[in-house]
Structure formats: structure tokens, C-alpha cells
Design goal:
The protein is an alpha+beta fold. The chain folds into two domains: about 375 residues, Outer membrane efflux proteins (OEP) (Up-down Bundle); about 70 residues, Outer membrane efflux proteins (OEP) (Single Sheet). Helix content is about 60%, strand content about 10%. Strands 1, 2, 3, 4, 5 and 6 form a six-stranded antiparallel beta sheet that branches.
Length: about 500
């Protein structure tokens, strides 16, 4: 290629590279945020939020729970799966970026060519050997000039997808921690309710023994002894369901830890007190938008869909490529590097759609519709997030009020049970009063534990709703299951032998 033509080709490439990027530029919607939440606690928003976003579960003061969270953030299979998807998307982004660079390939050929001797062309040609040895090699370069931004818009979409998967992994992390705390609270609540049921069983057995003593003295009848024994049987029957709930909670925790139930590695059989949730942090709607992973996912998917419009629009415009080929060939290997053996081509190629039956315009319309759907989903996600925060805050405060009333009920019912048992022992009241007092006292204690569990669940839901928890955890990047050097050995092992 002479110098003049080379300069002209370089100038043409430079002009083409200065082309425009078609399609709309992404601009996120302006979101009108409320001034605050109706049920939000008072306090210093900044300080409260900082404490809440970093290991809020540690404020429960339970070292066993802290150990479980640490194990789960390392071993949870959902988190590791989300990390693998993120790793794959980043590699796909690197693959798409390679389209901006020239693609170079090399090849080599060697062999014999056998020609037909049944025909002569040109006519009268004689003395031509029908068997020819052939040697050749090639260097091929192809460079797509991204004049209208098809590749660049695709990279914008891929970048947004990477960000969305990163936020999605944060959402998986947040969900894992929240579910773990909820399952742990359910386990401790089941153990506490079992202890209350055992205490009630002991109380009914004591009452039954008292009835038997009074019966032996002629101060009670067989109906009362039967009722007392029935109450003992009823109390004994309430214990087994709590064992079932505890077993299910332990198994759920094992799944979150990424381990079989028999290999949890943490003592969960020894009962511990049900954690008491700390005061909820003050939070603003802007913090929720900034920290909730699902909102970030929706916003990034909206950006990705907007970039896909540019990809679809670019397909309406010509494609420009620069194919360069260097293809020497010779019948003898020692002449392969000579000037006569050289063959090359340098072109500037352009292709443009002429008629596609409406396929390309339909793709553009579909991309615009998908972007609009993503925009609406983004808005819907924000509104839903605010509603979830309001619901969680209201549920927490209402349950806290209910728990205060249940504490009074436990105190009053315990006093009533004590009085009824003393009056019955003195023969001043009937046994039905004792049974009624026992049932009321047991129901009040059991309801109080259930309320404590509900309050804990409301606290977990609130932390999850405001997007708190993932900020304080560093997730190790997932690597490929097979190291690169081992992959190379596999490739070498399975390479076909020529």
C-alpha cells in the first residue's frame, strides 16, 4: 500500500470515528419525596442512621446470633450464587468492550491440491501438473467502526446491568441477614414458649395432686379429679408443637448458613432469651431511596433499557468495517516469503439495511416500550418501598403498645391464679375457678412471648424496609470454581491430536 492511499484510509477512519451516538441519553426521573414518615421515631437522623446501617443485629447483644450472621455472610449459597452472576456479567462486559478494538486472526495452510484432467481450460493447454503442493499463511484484521454508537450504547447497557446485579447481590445479602435474624428469633421464641408450657404442665400436675389429696379427705369428687387430669393431658399436648417449630427454625438457619442441619457448628439447642429489639433509628425517605437495593436495581434496569434504545436505533444506520487481509501462498515453501507470493487487500466496507419488512423499526418501538416499562417499575418500586417502611414502623409501634398491655395481663393473671389456688385449698371456691385461672395465666404468658416475637419481626422488617444492613458487610468476590491454570490443562488434554 503506497503512502498516499494509507493516509487517505487513516483520514477516512478518523472522520468515521467522529460520528454521533444515536438514541436517547439516560436521565433518571426526578422523584418527589415526602418530607418524612408518619410513624418515624424522633431523634438525630444522621447518628441514628449510621448506627442502623452497620451490623444492627449486633445491637441485640446476642453473641450466638453474631456468629451465625458472620458464617452466613461467608457461606450462604444465595449470596455466592449472586456473586457468580455478577462475575459473569462483568466478563460479558469485557467481551462486549472488545468489539471496539481490531480483531486479529492468523492461519496457516499446507497440503496437496489435485486438479481434474478430464477437461482442459483454457483449451489446448498442455503440460500442466494436475497435482500441486500448496503452502500458505494468513493474517486477517477486522475493525468495526462504531460510528453510530451501537457498541457504545451496548456497553452503557452492560454497565447498568453490572450495577444492577451488584445491587441485587446487596439485596440478597440484606434478605439473608433479615431471614436469619427472624429464624433465630422464632427459634428462641419456640424455646421460651416451650418453657412456659412446661411450667404450666407442672402447675396443672400440682393442682391435680392437690385435688387427689382433697378427694382422699372427702373434700373433692371424681368429676374434679377427672377435670384435673384432663387439664394435665391438655398441658402435655401443647409441648410437642413447639419442638416442631424449633426444629424447623434450626433447619432454616442451617440452609441460610449453607450447611446441612447436622453441621451447623453453633449450639442452638441450649435455650437463650429472645432478643429485645433496640430503638428504631430515625430515617428520611431520601435515605431509603439511596440505600434500598431493590430501588437501585430498578433504577439501573431503567438505565439499561434506555441504552438498549440506542442499540436498536443504531441498527437502522450503516455499519462500517475495515477488513485487512495479508494472504501469501506458494507451491514451494522456500518462495513463500518472496514478493511474488504476496497477496493482500485493504478495504473500507459499509453495509446498510435497505428493506427489512419493518423488523428494525419494530425493534426500536419495542425497546422504547421496554424503557417505559422500566421507568414505571422504578417509580412503583419507590412508592412500594415507602409503603413498606410506613407499615413496618406502624406495626412496630402498635405491637410495642400491645406488649405493654400483655405485660399487665401476665402480672394480673398470675396474681389471680395464686389467689384461686389458695382459696380452693381452703375450700372457699370451686375447682373450675382454678382451671379458669390456670388457663388465663398460661395464655397471657404465651401471648406475651408471641408479642415479643412479633415485635422482633416488626423490627427486622423495618430495618429491611429502610435498606439497612448490607453497608457493614464486605462480601468476598466469587472466583471461578476452576482456576485458570487448571482450565488450561483441561484444554490441552482435550485438544484433538492431528
Amino acid at each position: 500500500m503506497d503512502t498516499v492511499r494509507l493516509h487517505r484510509l487513516c483520514l477516512g477512519v478518523t472522520l468515521l470515528l467522529g460520528g454521533c451516538t444515536v438514541g436517547p441519553d439516560y436521565r433518571p426521573d426526578r422523584v418527589d419525596l415526602p418530607h418524612g414518615f408518619n410513624a418515624a421515631p424522633d431523634g438525630d437522623v444522621g447518628a441514628g442512621w449510621t448506627r442502623a446501617t452497620h451490623d444492627w443485629w449486633a445491637q441485640l447483644g446476642d453473641p450466638v446470633l453474631n456468629d451465625l450472621v458472620e458464617i452466613a455472610t461467608r457461606n450462604n449459597l444465595d449470596i455466592r450464587e449472586a456473586s457468580a452472576h455478577l462475575l459473569a456479567e462483568r466478563e460479558l462486559r469485557a467481551r462486549d468492550e472488545a468489539a471496539l478494538s481490531p480483531q486479529v486472526s492468523v492461519g496457516a495452510q499446507a497440503g496437496n491440491l489435485q486438479y481434474s484432467t478430464a477437461t482442459e481450460y483454457p483449451p489446448g493447454l498442455t503440460g500442466v501438473d494436475s497435482n500441486t503442493r500448496f503452502w500458505g499463511y494468513s493474517l486477517n484484521v477486522s475493525w468495526e467502526l462504531d460510528v453510530f454508537g451501537r457498541v457504545r450504547r451496548g456497553l452503557e447497557a452492560r454497565d447498568a446491568s453490572v450495577d444492577a446485579l451488584e445491587a441485587q447481590r446487596r439485596g440478597v445479602l440484606l434478605a439473608t441477614v433479615s431471614e436469619l435474624v427472624s429464624d433465630y428469633a422464632a427459634l428462641r421464641a419456640a424455646q421460651a414458649r416451650r418453657e412456659v408450657a412446661l411450667a404450666n404442665l407442672r402447675s396443672t400436675r400440682d393442682s391435680a395432686a392437690l385435688v387427689q389429696r382433697l378427694y382422699a379427705r372427702g373434700l373433692a369428687n371424681t368429676l374434679q379429679t377427672a377435670e384435673a387430669q384432663t387439664e394435665v393431658d391438655r398441658a402435655r399436648a401443647t409441648i410437642a408443637p413447639f419442638d416442631t417449630v424449633a426444629t424447623q427454625a434450626r433447619d432454616a438457619i442451617a440452609v441460610l448458613l449453607g450447611r446441612p442441619p447436622e453441621a451447623i457448628g453453633v449450639d442452638l439447642n441450649t435455650p437463650r432469651a429472645l432478643p429485645t429489639p433496640p430503638p428504631l433509628p430515625a430515617v428520611l425517605p431520601s435515605m431509603v431511596v439511596a440505600n434500598r437495593p431493590d430501588i437501585r436495581v430498578a433504577e439501573r434496569r431503567y438505565a439499561e433499557a434506555t441504552a438498549r434504545i440506542g442499540v436498536a436505533v443504531a441498527a437502522l444506520y450503516p455499519d462500517f468495517t475495515v477488513p485487512l487481509t495479508f494472504d501469501p501462498s506458494s507451491a514451494m515453501i522456500h518462495t513463500l516469503m518472496t514478493t511474488n507470493a504476496l497477496a493482500w487487500s485493504a478495504l473500507l466496507s459499509a453495509t446498510a439495511p435497505l428493506y427489512t419488512g419493518g423488523r428494525l423499526s419494530a425493534q426500536v418501538k419495542a425497546a422504547r416500550a421496554e424503557a417505559e416499562a422500566a421507568r414505571l417499575d422504578y417509580q412503583h418500586t419507590i412508592i412500594r418501598a415507602f409503603a413498606e417502611v410506613e407499615d413496618a414502623l406502624a406495626a412496630f409501634h402498635n405491637e410495642a403498645t400491645r406488649q405493654g398491655a400483655l405485660a399487665d395481663a401476665v402480672r394480673d393473671s398470675s396474681a389471680a391464679l395464686d389467689r384461686s389456688e389458695r382459696l380452693y385449698g381452703a375450700g372457699l371456691t370451686g375447682y373450675l375457678d382454678v382451671l379458669s385461672a390456670q388457663r388465663s395465666a398460661y395464655a397471657a404468658r404465651d401471648a406475651r412471648i408471641t408479642s415479643q416475637l412479633a415485635l422482633m419481626s416488626d423490627a427486622v422488617n423495618t430495618y429491611r424496609a429502610i435498606g439497612a444492613g448490607w453497608q457493614g458487610i464486605s462480601v468476598t468476590e466469587t472466583t471461578l470454581p476452576v482456576p485458570h491454570d487448571e482450565q488450561a490443562r483441561w484444554a490441552k488434554h482435550w485438544r484433538p491430536h492431528v
